[in-house]
Design brief:
Elements lengths: L2 H23 L15 E2 L3 E4 L3 E4 L3 E2 L14 H6 L11 H14 L5 H10 L4 H15 L4 H13 L1 H13 L5 H14 L6 H12 L6 H11 L4 H18 L6 H11 L5 H12 L9 H10 L5 H13 L6 H14 L4 H13 L6 H13 L5 H13 L6 H14 L7 H15 L5 H13 L5 H7 L2 H9 L2 H20 L27 H11 L5 E9 L3 E10 L1 H10 L5 H4 E8 L14 H12 L2 E6 L7 H12 L1 H16 L1
Parallel strand pairs: 7-8
Antiparallel strand pairs: 1-4, 2-3, 5-6, 6-7
Helix pairs in contact: 4-5, 4-7, 5-8, 7-9, 8-9, 8-10, 10-12, 12-13, 12-14, 14-15, 14-16, 15-17, 16-18, 17-19, 18-20, 19-21, 20-22, 22-23, 22-25, 26-30, 30-31
Length: about 650
């Protein structure tokens, strides 16, 4: 056979095999309908734009699995012959006219289907493909869930959707970097399957161009990774980290450094986080420009660096005047996520907001108070100022506002001094007006919060203790049963022990309370050892561990101590005194730091009501903190002064006399 005949035969065979393979690859793939699927929304991460600052993209739609091809066969020869004009090349007048016409009509499209109809009328260029995907996502992101579901269904069924994605796939190699990463982001948002060929093509090209991406493109790509499956994103994430690590020495501004830090994510290696920390510490002179953003950046990457946080908090404290609300809230939320506390900064923020109370809305004040409560910090100045504002006009509080105020003030146990009673009375009166429209759980929480504050409103309690209301707690799932029982038991103890003045006696029926007693955790060994060392062989003192009172309050240790004067008096008169009269019961309670307001020794609400009730029951509550157990010598002196105060006082006076002589 002649050589030319052999070559022609081979070309024909290769073309036939290639077409057969593509035909098999592009067979229609059965995809699950999204008609009855719930399209949940997820928050996109912040994306840095070098021209517009920080851009927050809206919520996304989690898609059903879909392959872009629906059986349409494209000619590979046409793909190979398709030409792409250089970025700076001039277009003919007719092409420019079509481009402007396309862009103008694109802005008038209201749905993804409108955009797809436009692509049928005018073939989009390489740069316009990204604009189409952008406009398709922008047109549905603000729709309701039902409307978005319908529009996505129409989009997936539109015959031009596959053609647009095919155009995107063949144009990806020639796209500008920003168009490339944004197109990938919009495809994820629109629900293009991550197993599809177009998706893999974009991922591969992004990997090839990683070294050419600027900070903005890397940031957009990092946002894509947040919504990609692990098997799709691992290699790309590793590549981004290598690029960031390589560019670290060349970073000159804090803003660029923060962008790189946000790209790392919480699962970045600790060695890389330490390198970023050292780089940030070398640029501390620039922190005054945007310290709150550095704190939120550290929260985003889940990295606690006390030196960096101390510098940021110091800058914020020095420049509080004029900081907008959103930044202050971001700072406090970042502190919560990082478990960071700075007493000076917290007090400064509290004083600043209290002194400028009139410029803040009620919603803003409640948000700040709520975050402070989660930080276990009592902003005394702010809480006092807000209480006075509520007293002057309590009727402006909505039910949601009231629940928030009750939770914050009862949890932090703030002492409002002469405003305390008036403030609690105002809250109680406002609560009475909402009782008819409150659910059972709202009533329970409100009654619980007011009981912690020492207030017992009759109307909410009477409605709460109705059998129809109590039955609702038994019908709830086991997930909330323990929480409901804890609140009900506290309300029951307050009604029985505090003896409130009510129109009629109210108690929680025993049938509404769970029978099981709380589990008894082990006593702190250092606490027990210190008590045993001090007591020694004292016959008049008795030590009990893990004492449960009222089937609810757990006491770590109870020391029963005979009172010497009463013992002597009883032996002379021959009368026998009751144990409560002849002895003193000291309830030793180990309290972790979270039971106190940060930076103070003031117990929070649940611990405060426990102390109040133990005093009513005849105990002398004594709180022992972690600091008092750190040193063996200090804890011995502490317990000796606790159990034998007169003996400890005489020993201390003797030491002072020796020092004086």
């Amino acid at each position: 056979m002649p050589i030319w005949g052999t070559e022609a035969l081979m070309r024909w065979a290769l073309r036939f095999c290639s077409r057969s393979f593509l035909w098999q690859q592009r067979l229609p793939v059965k995809r699950s309908s999204i008609k009855n699927k719930f399209l949940s929304c997820q928050q996109l991460g912040h994306i840095w734009d070098t021209r517009r600052g920080q851009l927050c993209l809206p919520e996304s739609v989690v898609s059903s699995v879909r392959f872009y091809s629906r059986g349409v066969i494209y000619d590979d020869e046409l793909e190979e012959k398709e030409s792409f004009a250089p970025a700076g090349a001039s277009l003919p007048a007719e092409s420019q006219s079509k481009k402007y016409l396309f862009d103008d009509q694109l802005q008038h499209c209201c749905t993804p289907s409108d955009v797809l109809d436009l692509t049928c009328k005018y073939a989009p260029s390489t740069g316009q493909v990204s604009n189409c995907l952008n406009h398709m996502w922008s047109s549905i992101k603000k729709m309701s869930d039902e409307q978005r579901r319908c529009e996505l269904q129409l989009m997936f069924e539109h015959p031009a959707f596959d053609k647009l994605l095919h155009k995107a796939m063949t144009s990806a190699q020639h796209m500008h970097n920003d168009n490339l990463v944004y197109s990938l982001l919009y495809m994820i948002k629109l629900g293009v399957a991550q197993e599809s060929r177009v998706f893999h093509t974009f991922i591969r090209i992004c990997q090839e161009k990683l070294n050419d991406f600027d900070e903005k493109c890397l940031s957009v790509l990092a946002s894509c990774l947040e919504h990609m499956e692990a098997n799709q994103s691992d290699e790309l994430k590793h590549g981004i980290r290598l690029v960031v690590e390589a560019r670290l020495p060349d970073i000159k501004t804090v803003l660029a450094l923060q962008t790189m830090m946000r790209l790392m994510g919480k699962d970045a290696p600790i060695e890389l986080k330490r390198k970023l920390e050292r780089k940030a510490l070398s640029m501390t002179d620039q922190f005054s420009l945007d310290p709150h953003y550095m704190m939120s950046t550290m929260a985003t990457m889940g990295f606690y660096s006390k030196p960096l946080l101390d510098i940021c908090s110091s800058n914020i404290t020095e420049n509080l005047l004029g900081i907008p609300f959103n930044r202050l809230l971001t700072v406090l939320q970042s502190c919560k996520e990082l478990h960071y506390r700075d007493l000076n900064m917290f007090n400064s923020i509290s004083d600043y907001i209290a002194s400028t109370l009139d410029i803040w809305t009620r919603k803003q004040l409640l948000l700040i108070l709520s975050v402070f409560e989660k930080l276990v910090f009592c902003p005394t100045a702010l809480m006092s100022a807000f209480a006075e504002k509520v007293i002057s006009n309590p009727d402006v509080l909505t039910l949601k506002d009231l629940q928030c105020v009750l939770k914050v003030y009862s949890s932090l146990n703030c002492d409002l001094q002469h405003h305390q009673q008036q403030f609690v009375d105002c809250l109680s009166n406002v609560l009475d007006s909402y009782v008819p429209k409150m659910s059972a759980f709202e009533l329970l929480k409100s009654a619980y919060y007011l009981c912690l504050l020492g207030r017992f409103p009759s109307a909410p309690l009477e409605k709460l203790l109705q059998s129809s209301m109590l039955e609702q707690f038994n019908s709830t799932g086991s997930k909330f049963q323990h929480s409901h029982d804890r609140l009900l038991r506290t309300v029951d103890l307050c009604l029985r022990l505090d003896w409130p003045h009510l129109p009629r006696t109210l108690t929680v029926p025993s049938s509404a309370l769970a029978d099981a007693a709380p589990s008894s955790p082990s006593v702190n060994p250092w606490l027990l050892q210190g008590l045993q060392t001090v007591l020694g062989d004292q016959a008049d003192e008795m030590l009990q561990e893990s004492v449960l009172v009222e089937n609810f309050y757990l006491i770590d240790a109870v020391i029963t101590k005979q009172l010497p004067k009463q013992t002597e008096a009883s032996s002379c008169t021959g009368e026998e005194l009751f144990p409560a009269e002849s002895s003193q019961r000291i309830a030793v309670i180990y309290a972790p730091p979270s039971n106190f307001g940060y930076g103070t020794s003031n117990p929070r609400g649940p611990l405060a009501v426990k102390i109040r009730h133990l005093k009513i029951l005849g105990y002398t509550p004594v709180l022992v903190t972690k600091q008092e157990l750190q040193s063996e010598e200090k804890q011995t002196d502490f317990f000796r002064g606790l159990i034998f105060p007169e003996q400890h006082r005489s020993e201390t006076e003797g030491k002072l006399e020796k020092l004086g002589s």
